[in-house]
Structure formats: C-alpha cells, structure tokens
Design a protein that fits this description.
Structural class: alpha/beta
Strand order of the largest sheet: 1-2-6-3-7-15
Order of helices and strands: HHEEEEEHEHEEEHEEHEEHEHEEH
Bound molecules: zinc ion
Oligomer: single chain
CATH class of the largest domain: Alpha Beta
Number of strands: 16
CATH architecture of the largest domain: 3-Layer(aba) Sandwich
Largest sheet: 6 strands, mixed
Strand content: 15-25%
CATH topology of the largest domain: Aminopeptidase
Distance between the termini: 32 Å
Number of domains: 2
Shape: globular
CATH superfamily of the largest domain: Zn peptidases
Helix content: 25-40%
Length: 387
C-alpha cells in the first residue's frame, strides 16, 4: 500500500472488523498485511492449526540480528465480545465523543496497533540500523493462544529482536510484571436415574457442593499466603482462584450424572502453575469422596517478569521518563514471549479500566501523546546502535 491513513482513520478501519476472539481473522489479517506491504517490508503469517486465525509479523530493516538487536512491537488483533446492551452507538463503528475515541477495541488494543502499523509504514526501511518487527496476534483475550502458537512455530535458531514492547493499555506506564492465568476443569461423574428411584442413581451435583466448599477453603488459604513479588500486587498479593462457571443436570426429575466447573487461577511471577494445579486437584478429589472426579489443567498463560535492571526495562523507563516499577493483575502475550527468551514490557495508551466494557474508550489526547513516545522508543532501538 502506497499511502497511509491518519492514526485515527486507521483505528476506525481496524475497529470496523468485528474481530472477536475465536472468529476467523482472515479479513482483518488481509487488511493489515495489505496496509503494511511495500518494498523492504517482509510479511509473514503464523496461522493457527486449523488455518482460520493467524498471527501477522512484519519485519523492516536489516536481517540477521543474531545478537537480538532491534525491537518488537506486539499487539493483539482480537477483541472481547460487545454484546452489552449499554452501548450507546455501534461498537464496531468508531465514535468521537467528549475527547474520547469509542469502539470495541479502541483501548484494548487497536489504538496501539494503529500507531505501531503507522510508525512502521512511515519509516524508510533502508534507514534502519536494526530490525523493527510488528507482531499482531490472535486470540489473546482467551489465553494468548496466538502468541503461544507463534512461539511454537518460530524456529529456535532464527534471529528475532530481544526487546519487545506489548502495547496493552497501561496509561503509558512501563509495566515489567504481570500475573499468569491458567484454567482448570473439574468434572464430577454420577449416575443418572429417575428421581423417583434415587437408589438407582447417584447425584453428581451434591458432591460438587463439597468440592466448591473445599475450593473456597483453598482460595482463603492462598489469600493468606505471601509469595515472592507479592508487594508489587498490593490489591491482590496472592494467587486468585475463581470458580467461573458451573453446569450440571438436565431436569428437575432426573438424578444428574455430570457436573462441570471451570476455574481460573492467577499465579504470581515465578510460581509454578502446575504446583498450584496439583493443590486444586488434591482438594477436589478428596472433597468429592466416593464420586469420580476428573481434574484437567489447561491453557497455562505464563506470568511475565522482567528484572528491574534488565536493559529493556531501563531503556523503556528512561524514554518514558519513569523511575518506579509497575505490575498489573492481568495476563498478556508478554508471558509467552518472555518464555521464548524475550525481554518484554507492557506499554500502551488507554486505561485497563476502560477495557472490556460497554462504550470502551481511549482518550484522544493519550492516543496522540503515545505516538511521539513510541517513535522515540523505535528510534532508540532501530535507527542507531542499541542502547
Ligand atoms: Zn489486551
């Protein structure tokens, strides 16, 4: 594509794709590839196993940065659903009201994506002394599935910039730490029968009650624990456990043969998710007693932790004019990217408090302020020797 749109116009184009997680990303991926395609820009796709969704990577500047020079700007293309009745305008049409840009994804995080794409689009690829990579992922909102897939498909010996900036809405603060998030499914099996003949069946729901009480006990126990790095999470300095859904039974006159619960847990950086899952498993099985209780652990989205004195953290803080360290309670693509050895920070316009809500907003002023900051960061990493 020869000409570029203004940042706001590009944002308007991006939010017009209702790229809710799990949906095919074909249309929005085609659009971003077309937009960034030009001589000197190398574009690759890293699709999901079924080919329906894809990560897009655009690389500019010299290849073969074996020492990890350069920078990755990472954003996710998917958004959470926008079915809340409180929307005062179409969630997939960008609205401007009272100094805010409003649409699903305006804040989390197509605003950042528009800035990253435009910064890349306006650079002369020949002027770069180190590579710039724009990585746009899928299905971040349901557990960073796209980022995980990218780390699996990326050849281990292929060079990639070591420093990564993940543009989650942090109100333009550099964040070097976040919790992880993993899921568990507990299935209690019983035997169904006519409720008039209960001796022929065994309820799966009654033992589920005991399992819930045991899990609430474990949650309280974990809330009293103070793992390493807990001081950075003053609101929740512990592992959180949420029983998010429970389903069981078919009718009021059938003894239920199955009850399924879904749990979400958020470990602190440095903790073993598998070890926490083992505690859950032990409690659940014990509480279920005679009933068969199946416990599955999946979608382990890792926590992110970058040392305070890591070069990437120091540089980003210096450029953002920040002295202190920040942590957030939500997970991001930075967990999987860190696991592949990258130094990741979160940094982006918008407040997380406005994300995942009806009338999701991004203050226009903050959107405008983000641009020169990001340009300065890109300049430091890609337009001369790495600091
Ligand atoms: Zn996000």
């Amino acid at each position: 594509m020869a000409s570029t749109l203004s940042d706001v116009d590009l944002l308007a184009r991006l939010v017009a794709f209702p790229s809710v997680s799990e949906r095919s990303t074909r249309d929005i991926a085609d659009f971003v590839c077309d937009y960034m395609e030009r001589p000197g820009v190398r574009i690759e796709r890293f699709p999901s196993e079924d080919g329906e969704r894809t990560n897009v990577l655009a690389m500019l500047g010299p290849e073969g940065a074996s020492a990890g020079e350069g920078l990755i700007l990472c954003g996710h293309l998917d958004v959470v659903p926008a079915t809340e009745p409180q929307w005062s305008s179409d969630p997939f049409t960008l609205a401007r009201r009272d100094g805010d840009l409003i649409a699903r994804g305006a804040c989390d995080m197509k605003g950042f994506n528009a800035l990253a794409m435009n910064i890349a689009a306006r650079l002369d690829p020949d002027s770069l002394t180190s590579p710039l990579a724009v990585l746009l992922t899928y299905d971040e909102e349901i557990g960073s599935l796209g980022a995980e897939r990218f780390t699996k498909l990326w050849p281990k010996d292929r060079p990639l910039p070591r420093s990564a900036l993940v543009g989650e809405p942090t109100s333009l603060r550099v964040v070097r730490m976040h919790k992880g998030h993993f899921k568990m499914r507990i299935t209690i099996h019983g035997r169904s029968s006519h409720s008039g003949y209960p001796h022929l069946g065994r309820s799966a729901i009654e033992p589920a009650g005991a399992v819930i009480r045991a899990l609430a006990g474990l949650r309280e126990e974990m809330e009293r624990e103070r793992p390493e790095h807990c001081d950075f999470f003053p609101q929740t300095p512990f592992v959180t456990l949420n029983i998010g859904t429970i389903n069981g039974g078919a009718a009021f006159n059938i003894i239920p043969d199955r009850c399924v619960m879904h749990l979400g847990l958020r470990p602190l950086p440095g903790m073993s998710a598998a070890a926490i899952a083992d505690r859950v498993r032990e409690r659940a099985i014990e509480a279920a007693g005679e009933s068969e209780c199946e416990v599955e652990f999946f979608n382990d989205n890792p926590a992110m932790l970058l040392a305070e004195d890591a070069p990437t953290h120091r540089t980003m803080c210096e450029l953002a004019g920040q002295r202190e360290s920040h942590a957030v309670n939500y997970a991001s693509d930075g967990g999987h990217l860190s696991r592949m050895g990258l130094e990741c920070v979160l940094f982006g316009p918008g407040s997380i408090e406005d994300a995942h809500k009806p009338n999701e907003r991004l203050a226009e002023r903050e959107f405008e302020a983000a641009r020169p900051l990001l340009e300065r960061i890109v300049g430091r990493y890609c337009l001369r020797a790495n600091a």
